[in-house]
Design goal:
alpha/beta; Metallo-beta-lactamase, Chain A; seven-stranded mixed sheet; 13 strands; globular; Quinoprotein relay system zinc metallohydrolase 1
């Protein structure tokens, strides 16, 4: 693409871009991984009566953290346990199940997946005896991507992945009310981070498991993202009265904090990528371009931002090339 004039103006605009909201207070200490034993060191932290989160590292995939960078969870309903996502490997799923069984006497009765990404469902082998649920779009995406996910995580994570084979959901679930035992939930389905992003809200405690729609103190992942649809979904999510928010990646926090961070980042990315594309910048120039300091302090920087550019910037270049030019 031919470079237009105004490069110095573009740099100034980027340098003055909107900063993200302040960092969220540090989450509870991450799991103490034992590499020799391939032990994830999973711990359950109570968020409300009968509601637990199992926090992963706020980091990028690596053998040092067992590729455990996801927050999973489980809820005792009085009629059995609902498990929210099962982690990145068979070994994780087995250790998660053992943790649940040490924490509550209720049997596991259902697994729920919030989107199609691998660390949401590659632990499913440990839950083969219970219904495993996801939306129709998520189920189709998992079936399409499962082999590539296995290959990629085996490459990234090594021995942690031994014995892991994708076990796909067995039942379809959609948005609306969900009742298990004495507990009532609300399921909301949006899109933008992926083509189907589920949010689970426990009506009794107002704890919300928001999946990948919200990131906290971490650069968002974007392999299936559409930033403008994602921003529209965040606007709708912001209208809900939530209490404790459990993102899949980053610290658990009070309502609004992670949402504001994610929205600020996507607004900056959508606007800046568009301006750089209009100015004729290539991908290497974008990677060297200025990014607000607050974003560069988040977990998984710069690796995840590099992937953001690879995933998304070509779309902005195509849009700029296709836009009619002023005479």
């Amino acid at each position: 693409m031919r470079r237009r004039s105004g490069r110095s103006v573009m740099l100034a605009l980027a340098a003055a871009a909107l900063l993200a909201t302040p960092p969220i207070e540090a989450q509870a200490p991450g799991p103490q991984v034992n590499l020799a034993r391939l032990d994830y060191g999973l711990k359950a932290r109570a968020l409300a009566e009968g509601v637990w989160v199992v926090e992963g590292a706020n980091d990028d995939f690596s053998p040092a953290n067992g590729c455990n960078v996801i927050n999973t969870g489980f809820i005792a309903t009085g009629g059995g346990v609902l498990v929210i996502n099962t982690g990145p490997s068979r070994r994780y799923g087995e250790q998660l199940r053992a943790l649940i069984e040490r924490t509550t006497r209720e049997p596991i009765v259902q697994v729920l997946h919030l989107n199609l990404h691998p660390d949401y469902f590659l632990g499913n082998q440990a839950f083969a005896d219970v219904p495993i649920t996801a939306t129709a779009i998520t189920r189709a995406g998992m079936a399409r991507e499962a082999k590539a996910y296995e290959d990629n995580l085996y490459r990234l994570c090594g021995d942690w992945m031994k014995g892991t084979e994708a076990r796909l959901p067995t039942q379809t679930i959609g948005p609306g009310p969900l009742r298990i035992g004495k507990r009532e939930f609300e399921l909301r389905e949006w899109k933008g981070h992926t083509d189907s992003d589920l949010v689970l809200i426990d009506r009794a405690s107002h704890v919300a498991f928001v999946g990948g729609l919200v990131f906290a103190d971490r650069v968002p992942t974007t392999p299936h993202a559409e930033p403008r649809a994602w921003l529209a979904s965040l606007e709708q999510l912001a209208t809900l009265k939530l209490g404790t928010v459990v993102p899949s990646h980053g610290p658990v926090h009070a309502e609004g904090l992670g949402l504001n961070q994610t929205r600020s980042y996507l607004q900056w990315l959508d606007g800046q990528f568009g301006r750089w594309a209009e100015a004729g910048w290539d991908m290497n120039e974008v990677l060297r371009g200025p990014v607000p300091v607050a974003f560069r302090q988040w977990a998984a920087w710069p690796a995840e931002y590099t992937r953001n550019v690879a995933h998304l910037y070509p779309r902005y270049e195509r849009a700029a090339l296709q836009r009619p030019k002023s005479p």
